Amino acid sequence: MSLPTVALVGRQNVGKSTLANRLLGRREAIAHETPGVTRDRVDLEATWRGRTFRIVDTGGYVHAARGIDVEVARQAARATAEADLILLVVDGQTGPVEEDASLARRLRSVAAPVLVVVNKIDTEREETDSLQFHRLGLGDPVPVSALHGRGSGDLLDRIVDLLPTRPGEPEADREPRFALVGRPNVGKSSLFNRLVGEERSVVFEDPGTTRDAVDAVVQWPGGAVRFVDTAGFRRPAKVHGVEYFGFVRAERAIERAHVAVLVLDASDGFTAEDKRIAARVMEAGRGVLIAANKWDLVEEKDRTFKLLGEEIAVYARATVLRTSARTGLGVHRLPPALLQVHVAWARRAPTAAVNDALQAAVSQRPPPGGARYRYGTQVAAGPPEFVIFGGRAPDASYRRFLENRFRQAFDLDGVPIRLRFRPGRARARGR
Asked: Is residue 427 in some structural domain?
């Protein structure tokens, strides 16, 4: 079975070989600041999230090439023609140049998908500079720092999502991924067993990427989904001995998931520890759904549900479902709710719709300090991330107001929203 192939192309000295080494996790390709070091195609094998693929590092593209550069360009063109995915690597420090544009024009006619990878984006402040590469006409650019590793995990996720599946290759990482997290003894394992036991048509155990974690792949009517059960989540200061590994497993399960089900003991209410876990899920950029478990033990049901809704609203207005792993109460409502959050988490809003929502928000409540937000666009999904141009970042109150307006406009309940603000237009900068 041939492996899917990813070709790295771009002009000289944009960091293709450094990026290849970063994606591999080891130093294989020769990387040097001298232009033109890589001449032949270099085939390397990488693995990410259970998928193995070939990375082909190519020599730098030169407009109107002469001499040896002609053969280098010929080798790069051959790699591009054979690739399943093409990474057009550009330099975020210099901005778009004519050679980038010329190569982009050629790549628009190829059959394989193309990702624009903006290298040398070493800080968060520089990330919005990558947006100027939209003008290449190849979709949303992906900012990375090959030298420091910044954004490399996100890029690898994008690569794996775009690669085709070969005959016989498992599709284990293409399913929506859900993690059950929560304090010890809230009924996670019981809920997990009842959930996958009642809803499955096919279930098998599959070792995860984390030691001692076992995933359950469940075939639902809409397709396969993946669950991972986790140990009780406690603050590191309260974790001792073997419990520490349970804490690490829970942390990694959140990172591996798309949506986390926060299971709490409804009879205890929404405790301080539950809030810390919810905050951790939000920080990781994962969708969240609340399972108020042991609901059959709650005495003041109306009052408890009202209080839970009020306290949980600050966590992306996550949906609260009342469940009982012991009796099966409400378990049937979890699958469609989880899938709904997952769809929202991965959703991309058209730029026109983002601008409509932004203008409606600023008309209802003008930004503080006389800021004028001209336009906005969604630059990433999973979680959704928006960049707003025309003014500096507002205070926390107005930021929450904009987040809530976007959440309402695009049905993003249970999904964290990332907002970034850029005062002026993106401009190319000298090195």
From this structure: no
List b or e across 19-33, with b for residues whose CB sees 16 or more CB atoms inside 10 angstroms: bbbbbbeeebbebee
Determine whether 133 is exposed, middle or buried from the number of CB atoms within 10 Å of its CB (0-12, 13-18, 19+).
Answer: buried
Regarding beta strands 203-207 and 259-265, do their DSSP bridges make them parallel or antiparallel, or are they unpaired?
Answer: unpaired
- Percentage of residues in the chain with pLDDT exceeding 90? 41
The residue type at 130: S
Residue 230: which residues within 8 A CB-CB, separation 6 or more? 179, 180, 181, 188, 213, 246, 249, 250, 253
Integer Cα distance of 236 and 365 in angstroms: 42
Residue pLDDT, tens place only, 163-176: 886 655 544 445 78
Give the pLDDT confidence of 136-191 residue by residue, as tens digits.
Answer: 988 889 999 999 888 888 898 889 888 886 655 544 445 788 999 988 888 887 88
Identity of the residue numbered 386: F
User: Could you say which of 319, 345, 371 is where a domain stops?
Assistant: 345
- The radius of gyration of the chain from alpha carbons, rounded to an integer in Å, stands at 24
Mean pLDDT of 339-344: 95
Q: How many folded domains does the chain comprise?
A: 3
- Judged against a pLDDT cut of 90, whether residue 87 lies above it is answered with yes
Q: State the CB neighbour count (10 A cutoff) for residue 45.
A: 11
State the CATH number of the domain containing residue 240. 3.40.50.300
Regarding whether 359 and 336 lie in a shared domain, the answer is no
Q: Are residues 69 and 217 in the same domain?
A: no
Q: Which domain, by its residues, includes 139? A: 5-162
pTM score over 0.90:
no
Shared domain for 137 and 195, answered yes or no, is no
The tokens for 290 are: 């609340």
- Average pLDDT in the chain: 81
Length of the chain: 431
* Cβ atoms 95, 428 nearer than 8 A: yes
Q: Which pLDDT does position 247 carry in this prediction?
A: 57
Q: What angle do CA 154, 159, 164 make, to 5 degrees?
A: 150
